[in-house]
């Protein structure tokens, strides 16, 4: 931990956390690019999931600073990709919804770069107890939070489908009632019109 | 890249040895350290919205930094102080809980009072089209929710906690956040159940109503046609 970071910690400024998770809306026929400057040797993980919209699928592409494609998937619902940055520079990843003509998609992604900054910027992490709880309990709680996020995303998908079904049932009921009435009343008047015409032709023939 | 910037800043600020100078130095170092946030490009009139689905009584802190593309130097430079971003936060009931304009670099905070999807929208307040010159604005964004929003260095300094105590405090905060999320989960499941029950009711009532309509229509049709044929002396 560099000394300037320790000093910054003493002054009370928080170091940037390295786990941005963002949920955003991707309109139809659009693509959204994100960029991140990564130092070589850093272990990174990109995880994304489509929450609502259409067939819940999206195209995703991750490129390194030289434009080499590290990860590319078309029409995926969710995925997890880990890699170690080999070059220094701007890595970019892009989510494309261009194949969709009218559905907006809500997307979640979580791009972890490197390790979390240590909590206490000091060098005396010698206590065995500190090591144990700082590694295992904290990490276990982090994975609990991670699982909770997955549950929340799945539940959001389920909720959006349930609401969709609810509105569809409402519209379909009203629509079918209307069609039923129009057809049955129309049938009667059409039938009546058949008999009225026949009557006039027979009377003309008779005379 | 960040390291070079730190060296240049140290050189310029090392002249002053006053306390104020030290503060400025550390501020600049801190700003340099923040260069590693995720960034994206935004058009001049474009509005970018992000959704945070959070339980209630959760604090959210957002930090952003903007850069403008300088055509002469062909790189992104920090934006002029006149260029600001308008930040708008809406709660799950679409009520605006934060609508403020910040400068080219800013930090916004809000605490949720209802659980659900909060929408954070950013757009630039630029009215002068020439300022952008057809380019895009680069926005570095960092949103911290709940336990991540805590400033542990500040808490340690304020309450004078040892390393172990600070770690325990962090674990306690994490567990509290997990607890809040579980409560929120319970609330969401109830909402899901309400939606499903509403669909169930609608399907049930519609089936009954449809049967009644069919029977009524059938009866009306027969009676109407019978009277029609009787009038035409065909029956």
UniProtKB/TrEMBL annotation, chain B:
Protein species of origin:
Jaculus jaculus (Lesser Egyptian jerboa)
User: Pfam families from the entry?
Assistant: EMP24_GP25L (PF01105)
Task: Name where it's found.
Answer: Endoplasmic reticulum membrane; Membrane
Gene assigned in the entry: Tmed9
Q: Which PROSITE patterns match?
A: GOLD
The topology of this chain with respect to the membrane is: Single-pass type I membrane protein
Query: Example GO molecular function term?
Result: syntaxin binding
This protein is called what?
Transmembrane p24 trafficking protein 9
Q: Which residues form the GOLD domain?
A: 47-145
């Amino acid at each position: 931990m560099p000394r300037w970071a320790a000093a910054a910690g003493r002054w009370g400024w928080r170091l940037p956390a390295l786990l941005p998770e963002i949920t955003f809306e991707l309109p139809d026929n659009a693509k959204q690019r994100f960029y991140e400057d990564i130092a070589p040797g850093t272990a990174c993980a990109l995880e994304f999931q489509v929450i609502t919209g259409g067939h819940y699928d999206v195209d995703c592409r991750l490129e390194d600073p030289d434009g080499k494609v590290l990860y590319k998937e078309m029409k995926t619902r969710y995925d997890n990709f880990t890699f170690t940055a080999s070059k220094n520079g701007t890595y970019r990843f892009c989510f494309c919804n261009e194949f969709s003509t009218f559905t907006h998609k809500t997307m979640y992604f979580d791009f972890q770069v490197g390790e979390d900054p240590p909590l206490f910027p000091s060098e005396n992490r010698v206590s065995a107890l500190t090591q144990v709880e700082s590694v295992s309990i904290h990490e276990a709680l982090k994975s609990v939070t991670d699982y909770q996020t997955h549950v929340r995303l799945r539940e959001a998908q389920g909720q959006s489908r349930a609401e969709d079904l609810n509105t569809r049932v409402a519209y379909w009921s009203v629509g079918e009632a209307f069609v039923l009435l129009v057809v049955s009343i129309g049938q009667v008047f059409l039938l009546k019109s058949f008999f009225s015409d026949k009557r006039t032709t027979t009377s003309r023939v008779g005379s | 890249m960040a390291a070079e910037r730190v060296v240049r800043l140290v050189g310029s600020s090392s002249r002053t040895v006053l306390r104020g100078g030290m503060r400025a130095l550390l501020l600049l170092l801190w700003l340099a350290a923040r260069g590693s946030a995720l960034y994206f490009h935004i058009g001049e009139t474009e509005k970018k919205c992000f959704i945070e689905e959070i339980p209630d009584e959760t604090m959210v802190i957002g930090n952003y930094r903007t850069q403008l593309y300088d055509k002469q130097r062909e790189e992104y430079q920090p934006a002029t102080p006149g260029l600001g971003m308008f930040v708008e936060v809406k709660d799950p009931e679409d009520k605006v809980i934060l609508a403020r304009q910040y400068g080219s670099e800013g930090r916004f905070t809000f605490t949720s009072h209802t659980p659900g999807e909060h929408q954070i929208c950013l757009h630039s307040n630029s009215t002068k089209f020439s300022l952008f010159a057809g380019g895009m604005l680069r926005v570095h964004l960092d949103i911290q929710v709940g336990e991540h929003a805590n400033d542990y260095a500040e808490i340690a300094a304020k309450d004078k906690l040892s390393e172990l105590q600070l770690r325990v405090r962090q674990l306690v905060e994490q567990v509290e956040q997990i607890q809040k999320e579980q409560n929120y989960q319970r609330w969401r499941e109830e909402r899901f159940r309400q939606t499903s029950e509403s669909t169930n009711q609608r399907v049930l009532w519609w089936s009954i109503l449809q049967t009644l309509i069919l029977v009524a229509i059938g009866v009306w049709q027969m009676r109407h046609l019978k009277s029609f044929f009787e009038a035409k002396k065909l029956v």
